[in-house]
Amino acid sequence: MRTLLLSLCLWSTISLASNFPLVIDPVVNETPPGANVTAGYLTLVNETGTEIVITGAYSPTITKVEIHRSLIKDDVAKMELQKSVILAPGATVKFEHGGYHLMLMALTEPLTSGQSVDIILSTSVGDMLIEMPVKKIGMGMHKDQTSQAPEPQGSNTPTETEVKMEESHQMNTDSEEQVSSK
Amino acid sequence: MNSPETNKPAQSKSWLPMAAIACIAIAAGVFAGTRQSMKGQPQVSHDQQAIQTVQAKLESATLFPDDFKQLPAFSLPYGESKMLSEADFKGKWSVLFFGFTHCPDICPNTLNEMNGVVSQLTQDQLAIPQVVFITVDPVRDTVEKMAKYVGHFNEAFIGLSGDLTDITKLTTELGIVASYTADANGGDGYSVDHTASMLVIDPELKVRAKLNPPHKIETITKDLKTIMANYN
Ligand SMILES: [Cu+2]
After folding, report:
1. Which of A34, A70, A72 minimises the CB distance to B145?
2. A48, A168, A174, B62: which one has the fewest Cβ atoms less than 10 Å from its Cβ?
3. Is residue A152 a part of any domain in this protein?
4. Least CA distance to B152: which residue of chain A?
């Protein structure tokens, strides 16, 4: 079962649920033994008519979460901290291998597939909680189907129905008490 | 049955394929000859031609000329008190690349992709290169940590660590970049920017090619097949 319906509006009293970007295919890479960092990926779709700015990320269970961007410049791989990520009206922004990623840092325990991690994105329209399932590396991506990819290609494209379901899910929110403040 | 008379027609029929094999053998010999006599001035252009022919078949990798670079002498620890040196690269193909375990995105994905490459080559019943991942952050990445980390992706992968000076010597000699940057958000963390491409070492320890990013299982597999088939 795909997990794209998990974005919840935490501040429903202040913001309308439909103000939030749509979240597709959130996934956190399982940590290889010895690693105390890992990456989280997802796709954000801004279906509103207004610009949304992602200003940061945090988690009730992970010591430090940052928004990073991997880039390869002159054959050198590096990561850059992103102070903000802008979602223009109608824009789709992918957090994916080799680009934007949520960097989960200073992990005290390994993350194994089957688990899930709560990540809160701070945005210009309020905070949004995303439950991100932990998967074996490469399993959350649909690009390299050669070695693994159980799902058929094209399943990561949002459809009309998915969008509507997402919106209705955002409407009934009751998890405000979970995260009260940063 | 085995009299010379009955054998004769068979022999004459087989003349054509024999000639074809001979031609191929001569052609292969010429090809090998040009490669080996790289340092002799007159043949240089032939060698360049040979490289261009193979290079044209590659999707993403970059081939190096014969006299480009040799894997330098080194000795670094891995696994449970084992040592890997340049001698362990003789007689087999190897893929060598650099990274560190505090790297959440590029390094683990590259290791995962190399595992995909190995399973593709295994499926096609081809020679499997020795895959060696060397940390550019040996202070945090101990030998034990590297062994566990790399083994998570493939039991056969080798994860090298060791003294920072020894590793820096090897990276410098191979032209690998590793530069240390303090985390932008403060704290005591740091990140290591490093060369993203992987090196293909041939059975004679020559740095034969480099696999350029972005790394894709299909592309690497195809390019490795081409390289290994043309330089054997
Ligand atoms: Cu990062």
Report:
1. A34
2. A174
3. no
4. A32
With CB atoms and an 8 Å threshold, state whether B218 touches A29.
Answer: no
- Please tell me the pTM assigned to this model: 0.75
CB contact under 8 A, B194 and A77: yes
Is there a contact between B197 and A75 (Cβ–Cβ < 8 Å)?
yes
Q: B159: which chain A residues are within 8 Å (Cβ-Cβ)?
A: none
Cβ atoms of B203 and B91 within 8 Å: the answer is: yes
Residue at A174 is within a domain? no
Prior bond of A89 cis (ω within 30°)? no
- Which residue numbers in chain B have pLDDT < 50? 1-43
State how far the Cα of B114 lies from the Cα of A58, in Å rounded to an integer.
32
Rounded distance between C-alpha atoms, residue A28 and residue B108, angstroms? 13
Instruction: Quote the minimal CA–CA distance from B229 to chain A in Å.
Output: 22
Q: Cis omega before residue B214 (within 30°)?
A: yes
Name the DSSP class of A113: B
List of chain A residues whose C-beta atoms are within 8 Å of the C-beta of residue B148: 32-34
Contact state of A34 with B116 under an 8 Å Cβ cutoff: no
CB contact under 8 Å between A147 and B115, yes or no, is yes
Query: How does the average pLDDT of chain A come out, rounded?
Result: 77
Contact B39, B67 (CB under 8 A): yes
Whether residue A147 and residue B116 make contact (CB cut-off 8 A), yes or no, is yes
Give the distance, in angstroms, between the CA of residue A66 and the centroid of all CA atoms in the same chain.
12
Residue A114 maps to which CATH number? Answer: 2.60.40.1890
Determine, yes or no, domain membership for A63. Answer: yes
CB contact A111 to B (< 8 Å): no
Each residue's pLDDT tens digit, A142-153: 444 333 333 333
Residue ranges covered by each domain of chain B: 1-43, 47-230
Residues of the domain holding A44: 21-140
Q: What's the number of domains chain A is made of?
A: 1
Which residue's entry shows tokens 């919840």?
Answer: A8
Nearest C-alpha of chain B: how many angstroms from A9? 27
A91 and A50 in contact (C-beta within 8 Å)?
Answer: no
Q: Which residue of A has its CA nearest to B198?
A: A75
Q: What is the pLDDT of residue A138?
A: 80
ipTM above 0.90, yes or no: no
The third-level CATH classification (topology) of the domain covering B47-230 is Glutaredoxin (3.40.30)
Q: How many CB atoms lie within 10 A of CB A166?
A: 24
Chosen from A41, A97, A113 to mutate, greatest number of chain B CBs within 10 A: A97
